[in-house]
Automatic annotation (TrEMBL):
The protein's name: Diaminopimelate decarboxylase
Listed pathway(s): Amino-acid biosynthesis; L-lysine biosynthesis via DAP pathway; L-lysine from DL-2,6-diaminopimelate: step 1/1
Oligomer and partners: Homodimer.
GO terms (BP aspect): lysine biosynthetic process via diaminopimelate
Presence of keyword Lyase: yes
Limits of the Orn/DAP/Arg decarboxylase 2 C-terminal domain: 35-389
Amino acid sequence: MPLLFGTAKFNEQEHLTIGGCDTVVLAEKYGTPLFVYDVAHIRERARGFKQTFNSLGVKNKVIYASKAFCCLAMYKLLEEEELGCDVVSGGELYTAIKGGMSPENIEFHGNNKTKEELSYAVDQNVGMIIIDNFYEIDLLSTILKEKGKQQKVMFRITPGVDAETHEYILTGQVDSKFGFDVMSGQATDALEKILADENLLLKGAHCHIGSQIFSAEGFLAAVEKMLLILNDWKKTFGYTVDILNMGGGFGVQYTEADDPLEPEAFVKAIVNGVKGQCELLDYAFPEIWIEPGRSIIAEAGTTIYSIGSQKVIPDVRHYVSVDGGMGDNIRPALYDAVYDGFLANRISTEATQESRIVGKYCESGDVLIKNIELPPMNPEDLFAMTSTGAYGYSMANNYNRNLKPAVVFVENGQDKLAIRRETFEDLIALDCE
Ligand code: LLP
């Protein structure tokens, strides 16, 4: 039996169903490739994080990282679940506001926010701006002075923790483009500068050690380093944070081989770590914020592809082509990410053969799954690639002028289009003759 997430199961017709909806029917209705999101699973994840904090009696904010996947319908869901969101561009901010997010629950991140983006965020009264560098302190300060406004801010610190993950998604180490470095004293200089600025209302410190992290160790190391520096600042400047933001990065399961901690266990570990350090240092226990993206949305997403051409090179390889690829999921090509999948329209008992699932893009690196055991397939078959909900659609592109897929939300037997499929007209909409 393949690995099934959330509400996914097979019905009597041996079709994959998600949220009570038959994916074969969804594929007919919306076409393929199609992203199907299991809304109940998203809600369960969102509530899991919040309820764990609440059960521990800890003041908290769970802030969904929009970059993992966002659209109007997603923001509506976040509002329903009382989650905040983080945005990292004017575009994400615009979508969040249009999607009904209350500005107070939006925080703005990024290592190179432009003047226009910062002004827009200030005008919209976003709840928090996470200052990333010295350039931004000056830029934001100038904007606020011009507008005669004050803004709640945190500042991002790189605590110098090497988490075990892919180099491209590591962010907490010293040699990073993000945040103020502790070792060189830049974080302390930033603190002094921000405290001295009456337009900047400093609420706390932020760190994010990386992404797709399976154990609590890296977070605990970061907690320890953060509290040490915070305690130094308390002694030197008499400054104590109201909020400690530990970022996101909680790992998920893509295949059987992945064994991450449950979201609740990450929260408990962080809370206990902060409590322990605060007691040790006699530091006032702060509000704790986290920014999960992948762990809320990854396993909720499944991509349904149609099978197309196949090429068998005797004694070498069996290629199976699907009607999407690196345009709707660049993660295998970019990070060597490993995914799993199975037929969505029948449960086969035939002997399997080792196959390679490839896309339709003009590039040899357009591989979705390098090696997978699959039964003989034909062009009527549908292939479900699982756990594609994070950084799939959000990193989608139009290479070869292929169309971005549709996205459908399913829950309690109801399907709702969240993003329509692109059209050829969309493709030329920005072109000038
Ligand atoms: N907070 C901050 C400040 C971040 O930089 C990130 C991710 C998150 C939260 C959310 O991390 P998550 O919980 O989703 O792991 N495109 C890559 C992932 C890049 C993550 C960048 N920052 C991928 O496909 O794996």
